[in-house]
Amino acid sequence: MSATGEVSGSARRGRRVILWRHGQTSWNVERRFQGSTDVELTETGIAQARRSARLLAGLGPDAIVASDLKRAAATAAELAALTGLDVTFDEALRETYAGVWQGLTHDEIIATYGDEYTAWKRGEPVRRGGGELETEVADRAAPVVLRHAEKLPEDGTLVVVSHGGTIRTTIGRLLGLQPQNWESLGGLTNCCWSVLGEGARGWRLLEHNAGTLPEPVLGDDD
């Protein structure tokens, strides 16, 4: 920093974490809750992953870590093919397990579990479908992200390929937000991403739902 308090051009940028949601699946289109169900990408989803991978490759990532579910793994493979990086898979980056909600459409969930759904949207701790709490998802996913971020070179970039709900809870945890406020982050469109930057007081949200013009968010928590 100069005597005037301005940051010089050579100042450290800090590490970056790019949290990238997988491409479209048929269940996304049907607004069917996937959770930990292992659903593959559609042809559109593959095309989304290829397009986004070309953009992300331009950022010069240093490492890729991904959920081991097929939709995330296939998305990560597109970036790996362009960068030559290996993908490290970790089941802790899977989407929220949502019990009996998994496989149901949005309308079916509202019709059968409306009170539970409304309580969750209010920010209450709810085991949707008898599955995981959002805080439990953050408990397993956020440490994985931090562990891999710590391995980065100075000013390095990590790409995390995961799922809408897991990404939101991880961002909330890393930013130090209260769990009842995590929903305020909003959803990620298929194959869009959010960027966290390393700052003097911890992680900062630099971009959210980036990568395309605004599009509808389909099946965010899957």
TrEMBL record:
<keyword id="KW-0413">Isomerase</keyword>
<dbReference type="GO" id="GO:0016791">
    <property type="term" value="F:phosphatase activity"/>
</dbReference>
<dbReference type="InterPro" id="IPR013078">
    <property type="entry name" value="His_Pase_superF_clade-1"/>
</dbReference>
<feature type="active site" description="Tele-phosphohistidine intermediate">
    <location>
        <position position="22"/>
    </location>
</feature>
<dbReference type="InterPro" id="IPR050275">
    <property type="entry name" value="PGM_Phosphatase"/>
</dbReference>
<dbReference type="GO" id="GO:0005737">
    <property type="term" value="C:cytoplasm"/>
</dbReference>
<feature type="binding site">
    <location>
        <position position="71"/>
    </location>
    <ligand>
        <name>substrate</name>
    </ligand>
</feature>
<feature type="active site" description="Proton donor/acceptor">
    <location>
        <position position="95"/>
    </location>
</feature>
<dbReference type="GO" id="GO:0004619">
    <property type="term" value="F:phosphoglycerate mutase activity"/>
</dbReference>
<dbReference type="Pfam" id="PF00300">
    <property type="entry name" value="His_Phos_1"/>
</dbReference>
<dbReference type="InterPro" id="IPR001345">
    <property type="entry name" value="PG/BPGM_mutase_AS"/>
</dbReference>
<dbReference type="InterPro" id="IPR029033">
    <property type="entry name" value="His_PPase_superfam"/>
</dbReference>
<protein>
    <submittedName>
        <fullName>Putative phosphoglycerate mutase</fullName>
        <ecNumber>5.4.2.12</ecNumber>
    </submittedName>
</protein>
<feature type="binding site">
    <location>
        <begin position="21"/>
        <end position="28"/>
    </location>
    <ligand>
        <name>substrate</name>
    </ligand>
</feature>
